[in-house]
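Handout for the seminar on molecular recognition.
Each group receives one record of this type.
Step one: identify the two inputs.
Step two: read the structure output and locate the region that could contact flavin-adenine dinucleotide.
Step three: write two sentences on what you found, then compare them with the reference statements printed after the record.
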Amino acid sequence: MKQVPVLIAGGGPVGMTLACELARRGITCLLVERNPTTTRHPKMDITNARSMELFRRLGVVDALRAVAVPESSNFDVSWITQLTGHELYRFRYPSVTEWRKLIRERNDGSMPAEPPMRVSQVEIEPVLQRAVQAAPLVEARWGVELVDVAQDDEAVTATLRRADGITEQVRCRYLVGCDGGTSRVRGCLDIRLEGQWQVQQRFLTHFRSTENGSSDAAEEELVPVVRFLVGALANANASGANHDDEGANA
Ligand SMILES: Cc1cc2nc3c(=O)[nH]c(=O)nc-3n(C[C@H](O)[C@H](O)[C@H](O)COP(=O)(O)OP(=O)(O)OC[C@H]3O[C@@H](n4cnc5c(N)ncnc54)[C@H](O)[C@@H]3O)c2cc1C
């Protein structure tokens, strides 16, 4: 049976960041992600400054900034009557460029080392995936699901299942459940989810655009991205809501 010090269940942002952080500290781990690829769902919009500080420590900040909205774009949230309608109100948030100026001007220890970032999880995950795959101490497998967990006094035995149905058992000293809101790890341990699992039913509209806001025409052609998501109150039975449980996890 394969033995690893740490098994990470779930290759979302948290699982992949943990794998990189463990590798940075010289700890070997195995990461398994049930999906064959990184997420297709543009959940996540703003990555906050503290998360960016962690990404800076891992050396992935530049790669992340390269796929984020341009540094000169503001992070405003606009409340509008409809896409071609008029604006009712606007929450104003500084751009990365403005943030950098604020940080420079206020050197009193109260500011973060990195400004926040606006980018979809669809863009973040491939950057983290490349970092995970480049880390020599991390073995990462996509298309492998954690299906069961048993523990004894010594360690944890996890059952993994590949997409073709083949199962394998892995023995680990630590199992880390980074498998989202519907966590299988949590379920296996009989840990109840506290609070309200579904605050509200909503639907999202995803707009795909080849425009990334850059003034560089060549770059615009090269970078098809999911730019916006719109959350709206909706009839709970609206078709397309929660088309799989990934969106519901977050
Ligand atoms: C519409 C929307 C907007 C959001 N906006 C923001 C935002 O602006 N800023 C922000 O910080 N957060 C935002 N979030 C929340 C953010 O998406 C989550 O906090 C984030 O995804 C959590 O990361 P995670 O790695 O813990 O979990 P997830 O991203 O849910 O990843 C868990 C991973 O585990 C995998 N997995 C599940 N079960 C198993 C299993 N049994 N075996 C192996 N793998 C498994 C899943 O496939 C998934 O890839 C938003 C979420 C949504 C839905």
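Reference statements: The mean pLDDT is 85. The pocket of flavin-adenine dinucleotide is lined by residues 9-15, 32-35, 39, 43-46, 121, 145-146, 178-180, 184, 204, 229, 247, 249-250 (CB under 6 Å).
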